[in-house]
Amino acid sequence: MKLATTEQRIERLRKLMEEPQPKGTTFSDVHKAIESIMERPVWTHEMAFPEMLYEEIRNGHVGETFGKSLQEIAKTKPVIGIVIDESHTKPNGLKPVACPRDDDRTVKP
């Protein structure tokens, strides 16, 4: 969905993020619509900070909200980065990851 102006994109995104959606609208429907407006994949945690998405549209800095939203989350919760060993990835590029126990402080390759 290519909207004509920046303000139209922001207004459509605001309606999706802040107003009740019609009965029968699924989270998946809303998520797809948000990605269409943003013209990129949107992580679900980015939806917790809609002002950052609005700012991204206004400023045209695509994708900057991902890092900013992680910084916001990190203010109150631990953020753990995981590096995926590409030799063990599935066809979609992902692999299952096990989190170490709290008492296991070693990092294994």
Description:
The protein is an all-alpha fold and 109 residues long. It has a domain at 6-79. It contains four helices and no strands. It has helices at 6-18, 27-38, 50-59, 64-74. α1 (6-18) packs antiparallel against α2. The radius of gyration is 18 Å and the shape is globular.
- The stretches of 5 or more residues where confidence is low (pLDDT under 50) are 99-109
* Global Rg: 18 Å
Largest sheet: none
Query: Structural class, from helix and strand content?
Result: mainly alpha
Number of strands: 0
Rough outline? globular
Labels describing this entry:
mainly alpha
Please write out the topology.
Blueprint: H1 6-18, H2 27-38, H3 50-59, H4 64-74
Helix pairs in contact: 1-2, 1-3
Brief synopsis:
The chain is mainly alpha-helical and 109 residues long.
